[in-house]
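Recap quiz, item 2
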Amino acid sequence: MSRLFTLAFLAQAVRIALPYLAASMGGIWSERAGVPNVALEGTILVAALGAVAGTTLTGSAWLGLIVGLLAGVLLQIVHALVVLIGRANAIVSGLALNLLAAGGTRFLLRALYDSSSNSPAIPGLAPPASTSLLRATVLDPTTWMVAAVVVGTIVALERTRLGLRVRAVGEHPEAAASVGVPVARTRAVALAITGATAGLAGVWLAFDQRQFSSGMSGGRGFIALATVVIAGWRPLPAVGFALLFGVAEAAQIVLQDQNVVAHQVVQALPYVLTLVVLAGWVRRARPPAALGRP
Amino acid sequence: MTDTAAVLLDGIEKRYGQTRAVDGAGLALFPGRVHAVVGENGAGKSTLLKIAGGVIAPDRGRVLVLDRELRPATPREAIRRGVAMVHQHFMLVPTLTGLENLALGEEPTRLGMLHLSPLAADVERLARSLRLEVPLDVPVARLSIGERQRLELLRALRHAPKVLILDEPTAVLAPAEARAVLGLARDLATRGVAVALVTHHLDEVAEFADEVTVLRRGKVVAHHPPGDPAIGDVGRLACEAVGEEPPVVARHARRGVAREPHVRHERVRLRVDDLHVDPGEAGAGSPLRGVSIELAQGEVVGVAGVEGNGQHALELALSGVLPSRRGTIALDGADVTRVTIADRRRRGLAWIPSDRHAHGIADELPARDVLLLGAFDEAARRGVVDDAELDRSFAGAVKALDLRPDAPELAAGSFSGGNQQKLVIARELRASREGRAALVLAAHPTRGVDVRAAATIRRSLVDAARDGAAVLVISSDLDELRDICDRIVVLRGGAVVATLPPDTPVSVIGEAMLG
């Protein structure tokens, strides 16, 4: 049990929480603007492939990062077109985009790397794996980008013009329109931000595992979405819950090693936690009033 | 006219599907005048003025602001050209603070961050000079209706508009607040602003307007320039609005209900004992602190009070939406305090809610199906909806309440506010007509409803009492309560502070309300 309270354990927890943090901030931008977003999962996936493809094609991990973010933005722009201009249901659009992302990345994996499972290895931005987990996490520039996204979201949503408009169009679009706020454009900008922030989660995954593998998002987009809901669509609580999920998963890894409980039970821990927290907290949370309303 | 019109609407047409909301109407707003626009629900008043405010683009016709066409026809352009609008339904984002709402659309920033403190200072100065003080730093959801209205006015007046459009500004206000708003409109006109005032209260027109345009079914049916004696003639304006001969809608019958002494029965239908209710986060306003009321069969009892003194909590607790913290509610002697909404309805509760969008109708449903909501058993046979029966109820409502348009398939949300209210009334009072209602709970039943429909609704409530129900009417229209009630209870601070006979002068009731 002593292994639960080491710096390495803490680093592990934060590391696991990083994609949740980035993707949940993405979810907050979209949903606070009134657009439901179940496409976080697909966004993570396409961004991960984008990061790997960008890196292998240009030889630069930094360019790979940019390609990854752009891939995420692109997917969310499609969501924006379908929902804001096509006036389609946002849940259906999100589900379709997730399926498209799953199939599309598998197809591109085959086309680019002639593999059905994974890409060749890439260097990524983090220091070599030989360094300690704590050191690797702290020295990884993507860690700090996620931190910047979190702080940026917290500040921007409360204190900038865009943040105010996003909150207004998500609550009462007619009122926002009546004072001249362009509702569709504001929502589109919010979705582009969602694409970049959720995309950062995908880039982080690809760089962390130093490759792309089929379906590597592994449900993280949905955990992030749950985080958004539990947090009542507010960024600061979302940070807390994302970290809580990180701790739960890190604990699961340690406990699994120790073989004290059946590992299937331990593996279910983060999801049980999700349900417990959802049942306990979500009653107090109120979604944006215009969520899902055109 | 030597003056040029501040706003000139000419030959405006606007259709929604089959219905012509505005059908070739025109309107000229001149500086220095309060121009009242009157007409029944669905006459096209709001649509016409929304076109003036750039909120809706007309299908045909010209909109000139100070002799230049309004283009593009957007709210932003209208605001930029000096046309400010206060909408019938509040255009405030409830989760944002008052200050954030005022900033929205033209947010002052510094170094990329919102910079609202100079705005706050400006607004507070303006608020003081117009006597429209309102807290700016709390979410709008926590403000009273009157405070929200003041906030809307502040926003409209911030840029010293040349034209101010007020769409039913007094519909939800207590009498004193309403007079303050109208007085302000009058003041602004003397300072050279062109004011347009949409209203159902014809006595307001007589007192505050210089000029009147009467609309009926999207057309201008009468225009009274300044000095025309018709402006002070409430009866005549009412006739023009509804298109009937004077004797039918004379001043005396304006309220539409001649009160007869009701027969007192001893059977108690509603007994509320020491009721305590916390409004919680349901937006129910202020709490109830120990209310006891008893209503006998055939009685109409009014609840008066300044908005935010527990009326809403009372409504929601009696209907079953909000739980009671303490005390009991009994219908026909049976304790229903912990009983669900559906069970209360089965035991004879009929509820005409104050917020029909939250509790009364579903905007997207065909109007016909709205008659089914919460009344499924009445229109179904062995669990299957009986379409013929439903069509009969709809036809009945068209006939009895003058429901318009006669379009059972049209989405309820496309009906005008007054006609949506008639749908609710038709459904809720069906049980009482059949003698099955124990309690009719009517909250602001005629708010935002035109004179004729309001008269019909009041008549229906009195009929419900005659048919044996107990009727509890929560209303901010004191004349209405005095007209139809057997007694009036006054709520203040969540408690009953007075029980008054219906012939109590409005001023005395008002004193009780204010304490």
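Confidence is low (pLDDT under 50) at residues 246-259 of chain B.
The first strand of chain B starts at residue 7 and ends at 16.
End of item.
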